[in-house]
Amino acid sequence: MEAVKLHLAVFGNDTIEFYQASGKYNLGPGVDVLATLGYANYKDERKGTMGVSDAAYENSGFAAMTGLSLAF
Question: What distance in Å separates the CA atoms of residue 14 and residue 38, rounded to the nearest whole number?
Fold first, then answer.
């Protein structure tokens, strides 16, 4: 009887790029407005090897966050 080997993970050079900019503006004593913008890009090592289904190996997106800080 022969053993069956399964390869569930592929070792290689996946890449993740992430960029983020954050800022804070003071409106008055104890009151701040906060904001963050971000962009992420992921590419699997298999990108460019699968033809039509290639889009499954790349993903990117933007993120935005705002907030209000109150300190007493």
Answer: 20
